[in-house]
Amino acid sequence: NVGSYCGSLSSLKASVLGSIAIKECLIRVGLEGSDVSEVIMGQIFSATEGQNPARQAAIRAGIPIDVPAYQINMLCGSGLKSVMNGYFSIKLGESDIVVAGGQEIMSRAPHAIYLRSGVKIGSCNLVDTLLEDGLTDSFHNIHMGIITKYYIFVLGKFKFYVLSFLLLINLAEQYKISREEQDYYACKSQQKAEIAINAGYFDKEIVPVTVTTKKETFVMSKDEFPKFGTTTEKLAKLKPAFIPSNGTVTAGNGSGINDGGAAVVLMSEETAANRGISPLASIVAFAQVGVEPKIMGIGPVEAIKLVLKKANWTKEEVDFYELNEAFAAQAIACIQELGLDTEKVNVNGGAIALGHPIGMSGTRILITLLHTLERTGKKKGVASLCIGGGMGIAIAIERK
Fold first, then answer.
1. Which of 25, 187, 334, 356 does the annotation list as catalytic?
2. For this UniProt entry, which segments traverse the membrane (predicted)?
3. Would the pLDDT of 148 be above 80?
4. For 242-349, where are the alpha helices, taking DSSP H only?
5. CA distance 265 to 275
6. Which of 34, 53, 198, 242 sits a CA distance of 20 to 30 A from 170?
7. Is the per-residue pLDDT at 276 higher than 90?
8. What CATH homologous superfamily does 2-108+175-399 map to?
9. Which entry of 76, 111, 187, 371 is annotated as an active-site residue?
10. Residue 386 a catalytic site member
11. pLDDT band, residue 142 (cuts 50/70/90)
12. Per-residue pLDDT for 121 more than 50?
């Protein structure tokens, strides 16, 4: 499940959501906790969550205490990097079966204050760790939404950073994406998600979560972030979120601040065969790249190009792409630069509709891709995310 900011899941620790996902994975595959060699979970906001939340999630899920677990922080790429590391661990012969995933309760990110050395005189300011550790570029001290503003309109001034991979194109001219285009893209994301939810396409991906508060106990069995009935007219009424005077990024055409957990089970083809397990897909290739932090949203362009090269695939032979929608403008620009068929991208909606729990999203889009390929009988898929600080990550998978 994906919860809204300060919504139904906000009272839980991230490790609780992670443990639910891990436990359900093992049940569905028919494994015991003792079969697992290693657990790897992405998570960014871990202040006040206790030591090594990945280890907490593993133990809560019934993984034996002699099985190691660790946490990854690669910002938005964490949930996919955990899968990458699990793959490498198996390839190197260090592990036999790995559980990899991501967990995040952005609603619980605390405010912090530096008082170790004391305060002699003057005021003390609380730091919002949600912004400081997750949503603000550390190199330029700019919120990600404002980076998107730079990305669309000002990048011509910074084009010397990216001459090698953007063919000397003045991106300010190529990607001058209007507010109307962004709202239209966001509306389509919401509409596709609404259709997919009503058709039950996400049912296999979701595990019901029982939440007990002081007032009640309830079961959450559906994502609560999608906005059914979204129209471009409604989106057009929203005020700019970051630059009031002439900004184009709004709460409606950017991804959400969300809570959620997800996990997958990885093993070699030989191990799967020996255990009589039919895998959803095989990993064909991974890619990760670095880009100028001020245009971090372009990361998927180079990551997807590289993963296609490693897989020896053309972009046309890929059946579906899952491209994390940090912002509508970012997603539109990546689709344009790569020349992707929009009918193949985020066919069930993306993060604008479904939400973006930072440490979990990489695993979430991979799981969505796996089930989309299975449901449609298609073979090849690519999932990719942009990453704060100027990076991109991608994976290519194939059903047999």
1. 356
2. none
3. no
4. 269-275, 299-311, 328-338
5. 13
6. 242
7. yes
8. Thiolase/Chalcone synthase (3.40.47.10)
9. 76
10. yes
11. confident
12. yes
Average pLDDT over residues 111-136: 88
Provide the whole-model pTM: 0.91
Which band of pLDDT confidence, cut at 50, 70 and 90, is reported for residue 241?
confident
User: How far is Cα 41 from Cα 100, in angstroms, rounded to an integer?
Assistant: 6
Q: Is 206:224 a contact under the CB 8 Å cutoff? A: no
Catalytic residue (choose from 25, 187, 334, 386)? 386
**Among residues 111, 115, 149, which one has the least CA distance to residue 128?**
111
**pLDDT band at 145; cut points 50, 70, 90:** low
Q: Which residue has the tokens 């962004």?
A: 182
Four-residue CA torsion sign, 369, 100, 282, 75? positive
Tokens of residue 337, six digits: 């630069």
Token readout for 123 is 């005021």
Query: Rounded distance, CA 183 to CA 238, Å?
Result: 10
> 74-106: buried (b, 16+ CB within 10 Å) or exposed (e) per residue?
bbbbbbbbbbbbbbebbeeeebbbbbbbbbbbb
Is the distance from CB of 45 to CB of 108 less than 8 angstroms?
yes
Q: Is 124 a catalytic residue?
A: no
